[in-house]
Amino acid sequence: MGKQIYFVLSFLFFIVSAIAQSKHAKSTNFTSYKGLVMAGYQGWFRAPEDEANKGWGHYGVGQKFDFENNTIDFWPDVSEYKKTYKTIFKYPNGKPAEVFSSLDKSTTDLHFSWMKQYGVDGVFMQRFFGVARNNNSTNKPQDIILKNALQAAKANGRAIAVMYDLSGLKATGEDCSAIIEDWKMLVNQLKITNQGDTQSYLYHNNKPLVAIWGVGFPDRPFDTRKIGINRLIDFLKNDPEYGGCAIMLGVPTYFRELNKDCLPDPYLHELIKSVDIVMPWMVQRFTPLVHNIGAHFRDHIVADIAWSKAQNIDYVPVITPGFSWRNLSVSNKKTDRYTAYGAIPRLGGKFYWEQLSNAILAGSEMIYVAMFDEIDEGTAIIKVSDTPPNGEKAYFVNNDGMPSDHYLWLTGVAAKMLRGEKQLELQMPEKKTYK
Question: CB pairs under 8 A, 24+ apart, for 424-430?
Fold first, then answer.
């Protein structure tokens, strides 16, 4: 009788195991983040006549985009876009200035073709909590953009992964379970980690990589200990169907000391030690206006890497061209104190290169660039105009006299140096003389 029960239980276990097989493909063109320069991709710009048909999005406030409702500090160079949208802003010759919509497939295709052309290895598609909260369909604008990006990544041989941003998670009544359900939807319906032969989803240590951003920051309304982040991590790591993933956790810059921009809660260290990669958010934490910022940045990363190695986890620094959000802060009217245009200046790419080169010199094996397309906070590396439609009622930051593709080109050069394909140069290379 005991043997019969044993065989029955063994058979049931076999059946359950067979049913609950991993839904992820076993192979991908990108088996590790190491050796790659990836960027964050917002994909949040909308125009009144695009498929969403909900007015302006992220160009202005309240679906408006005018002199009083303007939230971008850089103007995109749209000379290569197949579809553009006229605005009320005009150039000195009276011609209306135009912008793009992230929802258009042609926009996504162009962006990924730039990545291939310049050597940007790929992007993390930003997915905010509000999107995960409303996961009852796959026809949301964010899902359409993600579908387009998956196709474009595969067509252009670029890596792609999902980054969940906890921004928008409420202080009470919500937890990370919505992300669990959203990930199931992406895996089941979009087949995000099983795109067939030559798929481009980014793996790390041969496991699909999922990023979670926004833990440990003091300006979050939620209590990190009460949102089920540990359950989310356990699900992504261990669920027999949807798990088996590698996890990257986005945390504050000063996560090691648990001070300055970081909550003084040691629970953050427990979470970091349970994931595969730690990614400290360094935007607005460093500026070229400080003496010898390159050495300071390098020393900070050296210490971060040493700490991470002691915990047996990998580390990726965040690098940005600069920072500028004066129009955003003025239009949102959330504060009486407004930063200057170009508050963290780009200096024609010198600040960007100082970070890139020193991150590589410090021993970084992978890099995250913030961001690919975020012109509203002045961190974008996409092509921007050096002659924006400035006038009496509007001002936009120029490109310091540099070509519109300057930051895409620098990113690709840095990727080659990261992999040792080119010798590391601490001085910013010049395109016309670089070989």
Answer: 424/357, 424/360, 424/361, 425/357, 426/294, 426/357, 426/358, 426/361, 427/353, 428/349, 428/350, 428/353, 428/354, 429/353
- State the Cα–Cα distance between residues 205 and 252, nearest whole angstrom: 24
DSSP H helices, 157-228, are 177-189
End-to-end Cα separation, the chain, in angstroms? 77
Tell which residue, 109, 107, 97, has the closest CA to residue 153.
109
Look-up: residue for tokens 């876009």?
Answer: 81
Residues with Cβ within 8 Å of residue 189, at least 6 apart in sequence: 138
Query: How many beta carbons lie within 10 A of that of residue 5, not counting itself?
Result: 9
In what helix (H) or strand (E) does residue 86 lie, and over which residues does it extend? strand 85-90
Q: How far apart are CA 159 and CA 410, in angstroms?
A: 18
| pTM: predicted TM-score of the whole model, two decimal places | 0.95
- d(CA 352, CA 345) in angstroms, rounded, equals 10
Structure tokens at 6: 């044993």
Q: Which two tokens stand for residue 62?
A: 């309240």
Residue 236: closest CA among 208, 216, 262: 208
Contact 245, 236 (CB under 8 A): yes
Contact of 43 with 126, CB cutoff 8 Å: yes
The model's pLDDT over 194-251, given as tens digits with 9 standing for 90+, comes to 999 889 999 999 999 999 999 999 999 999 999 999 999 999 999 999 999 999 999 9
